[in-house]
Recover the amino acids of this structure.
């Protein structure tokens, strides 16, 4: 008995193509040891240092148990590492070697290409959050707020990823790969030290607080802290990050160079 095959010409649906590309990007990220170090090992080590050694009690993290204050800020650092630094560097070198240009000519649209990259970042962040939250509970983390806290964390991670991924793609699409590598690492360190990632805005000199409060890093870290320490949904911080994402995303659409 013969079998009849009916061809179905045409490309796969857009969501399936984006999902396939996100899976490929996820696998590539897992093979990159340096990016995994930045994305997971450094935040995990910092969490144990602040929440498990007593060092956090001597640092200006805020009022309350050190581990309760450290966990949301380390989560913010993890989001910054994956959605900004890792994404910017990887995309910059893909653009240098012509990978981006070739993928841009494939059936996957350029918008789908960028969406797939962000999808892979969200998958990495899911692993980060699972590991860091588990480590936090092991250290005695006691978040408050219940459902509101969970919703607030998810909201802040999504908005923060959108904002910082847009910043990373903006940098990678304009600068040369070597310049992107240097600038992304430098900005990562600057935000870590002066962007209210590990230290609340209120702990900065009064003359700096107005400027620091406008940074997306401050909105992300303070929003996560508000979610788990105070048990409230940080709508203002989410709106700030959404505005950053909208402006930076528009700039990416206007300036990203594919070759």
């Amino acid at each position: 008995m013969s079998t009849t095959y009916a061809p179905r010409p045409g490309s796969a649906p857009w969501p399936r193509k984006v999902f396939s590309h996100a899976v490929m990007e996820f696998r590539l990220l897992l093979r990159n040891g340096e990016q995994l170090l930045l994305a997971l090992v450094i935040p995990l080590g910092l969490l144990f240092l602040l929440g498990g050694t007593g060092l956090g009690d001597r640092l200006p993290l805020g009022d309350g148990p050190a581990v309760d204050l450290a966990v949301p800020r380390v989560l913010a650092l993890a989001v910054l590492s994956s959605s900004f630094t890792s994404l910017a560097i990887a995309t910059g070198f893909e653009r240098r070697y012509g990978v981006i240009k070739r993928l841009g000519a494939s059936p996957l649209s350029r918008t789908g290409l960028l969406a797939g990259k962000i999808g892979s970042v969200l998958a990495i962040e899911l692993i980060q959050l699972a590991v860091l939250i588990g480590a936090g509970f092991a250290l005695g983390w006691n978040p408050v707020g219940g459902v509101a806290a969970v919703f607030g964390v998810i909201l802040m991670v999504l908005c923060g990823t959108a904002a910082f991924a847009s910043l990373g793609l903006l940098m990678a699409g304009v600068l040369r790969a070597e310049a992107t590598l240097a600038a992304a690492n430098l900005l990562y360190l600057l935000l870590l030290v002066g962007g209210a990632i590990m230290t609340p805005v209120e702990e900065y000199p009064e003359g700096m607080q107005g400027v620091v409060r406008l940074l997306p890093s401050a909105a992300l870290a303070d929003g996560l802290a508000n979610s788990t320490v105070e048990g409230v949904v940080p709508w203002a911080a989410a709106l700030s990050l959404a505005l950053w994402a909208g402006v930076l995303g528009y700039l990416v659409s206007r300036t990203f160079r594919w070759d």
DSSP finds ten helices and no strands in the chain. Residues 66-96 form the longest helix (31 residues). The chain has a mean pLDDT of 86.
